[in-house]
NtaA/DmoA family FMN-dependent monooxygenase (Flavobacterium chungbukense), 882 residues
Amino acid sequence: MNAVGKMLIGLHLGNGYGSQSGAWRMPGVDPESYTSFDIRVKQAQAAERGKFQFIFLPDGPGAVMTDIETESPVFNLDVMMTLAAVARETQYIGLVATGSTTFNEPFNLARQFKALDIMSHGRAGWNAITSSGEDVAANYGRRIPSSQDRYGRAHEAIQLIQSLWGSWGKDAWIHDQKSGQFAKKDQILPINLQGKYVGSRGPLYIPPSEQGQPIIFHAGGSPNAHQLAGRFANVVIGAAFTIEEARAQRNAFRAAAKSYGRDPDEIKYIAGLMTTIAKDKRTALDRRIQLGGSSLIQKFEYLQKMLGIPLDLSLINEPISESLLENARPSPYDPRSSNAFKIARQGWSVLDILAHGVIDYHPVIAGPGVEAADHMQAWYEAGAADGFWISPDVNSDGIDAFVDQVVPLLQERGLFHKEYESKTLRGHLGVPDQYGIDPRV
Amino acid sequence: MNAVGKMLIGLHLGNGYGSQSGAWRMPGVDPESYTSFDIRVKQAQAAERGKFQFIFLPDGPGAVMTDIETESPVFNLDVMMTLAAVARETQYIGLVATGSTTFNEPFNLARQFKALDIMSHGRAGWNAITSSGEDVAANYGRRIPSSQDRYGRAHEAIQLIQSLWGSWGKDAWIHDQKSGQFAKKDQILPINLQGKYVGSRGPLYIPPSEQGQPIIFHAGGSPNAHQLAGRFANVVIGAAFTIEEARAQRNAFRAAAKSYGRDPDEIKYIAGLMTTIAKDKRTALDRRIQLGGSSLIQKFEYLQKMLGIPLDLSLINEPISESLLENARPSPYDPRSSNAFKIARQGWSVLDILAHGVIDYHPVIAGPGVEAADHMQAWYEAGAADGFWISPDVNSDGIDAFVDQVVPLLQERGLFHKEYESKTLRGHLGVPDQYGIDPRV
């Protein structure tokens, strides 16, 4: 149990196809989803039907990270333009986008996220990250700064942006047509922050939203990430393969929050989960085999390293023999190895082992909805997560499958809310509204 | 006559209230228009009903330039978020926002405008400006660079952004589900531009829109502006008070285009026009008196300087006497002075002279629709403008007044199109589609 009393669920809305690189080729998928805002809106609406607390858009910003010859870019065309479209055509769901503190002017980030907060009536969240990829830096004609400089700038940028968000006081906007007072000038104040990396005088001329101002998210797992999130974030977008790993991460973030004088419950740890939900296990595995295509051969190569045994491609449809498995040594360098070994010992064929998603970015559920519900309940009750961000294999039907086959189980078990109790993201997450500091106090 | 064969009309969509500082207090105006995206969308739809070629959003970015105690900020909350909303709820009208080359990362501008171009199906334009206000620079914790550095960076930024827009070739996106080819990698190429001020490797992972890529606008009147626009722009957002001044500006931009090896017809000069359209002159003047409020007193002070004669506030409802007018010396330092003098000699009261808008940012039409149509026809036929960007006094009813009372007259006179002939901004402006350079040629 966490402070909200129920688990939180977010939808990973990426390139419009889904989390599996073969998603764009699947039957029923519009191959132009990458450029379709209609489809993005429809997917967000599906998540809202499932009462998800938020949708989450990762960003590099702007790198591709795939082989464009056969795969879609992994990121959204533009995360803020997408959320603007979604904001206009949804009512409840929180809208969270990644914005790099490394490659954005803080004033521009502040303005655009606050505008999103206004247009969504208080549903905006900013995933404040640092960018560490040289392919991203190259888009800006630069090299990636040192970790110290990136996090130094991130700390300054978040404080500056939160200050800009609060620079227009809660009750400053009068707009009284009779008296002619538009706003109280003495409650719209410059922030005058100048740091080593960034500065701004302000103020930002945008009044508070229905939740005051956006919420800070962070994604990362390093000690630097713990500190940044511990100081500023209300939500952490996590990545962990086991309950133990997730619980350790969650506790590290909670401890960091405490070290910055905050209540640990103010920070929610959201674990990643990838889903292929189908009526039964066999159907789910077949779907993932269809999705995997040629990438399963690459994964076949790597599976041998994970298990520490040689495998024969011609026997891919056979279980691994008992004698081979006796020699297996799950790699200590990959936290996914023990899961791969466990599934191998259940007697699945090599192809089916791969179809279980033993080699992917997050834990994978490939099976009926109850498997996902059981996984989520186990992690949640073990204190390993306050919630989950879901990456469906294929968005076009994978979001609906989760909404129709997993959400009702979680609701029946009392683990997930049945209705939105609020219309703001802060309301959904149990985070108090935030306004600027009243200069009159 | 210009290259398109008809005049072009754009709507200035600013803070949501209108161009007059008193607009937010007028009857029928929602005092919360500043934060209402519903209202912005409705205003854009009104312009689309009138077959306007584009809406135009100026930006500082982000400064206020008014007395917030009694007036709204002049700019939009965020120009890109507004255009995203408008893009989803209009079908034809072009969408043009100002983006500062001084205070944005070029890659971020490139990505967001191209995403807007995709979501609007080829209706995006970028008004590429340099920022020169110290109040703007203060938002970024910096001082305004020298004019040389600002324009140097602007030249580099526009070339870089156009290159990024063209980095995904016209026919590169295959998305063939059967063959599994997503895109042709050899037609999505890095741009590898590195200048003195900005650089980028790219590519930008966004395919062409229905018009290929966005159009470049520019706003400014200096020799630097002539050069920048002459090199890159298809449209200039102008500001001139007389036919002579506008024609000189237009010719300067055309000459600059020619000096850069372009056909002068490739650059369209769009003059500013502010409108108060009413059933008759008296009603229009009374509306502007109501709108002007206390600001008319400040303008009363300045009118004396423009005319070079002392005026008595107690006689504000009387015409200026013949004997006083004989001593008037219209100020040579303000191009609006001769117009103020002309109106004074027509015998209008001092208050009515002010209500004519003799002191405003652009020429003002306060009267029935035919006055606006006559003004536009005269300027257009004199070669002083290829079109006009209209700033209604109050958006809530001022856009409709223009659409219903001016547009039909222009259409009857054969000066303005009756239907959209295209669905892209390039189509509206007679500018050919633009794609990247095919590396195979």
Notes: Chain B touches chain A through 68 residues (CB under 8 Å). The radius of gyration of chain B is 23 Å.
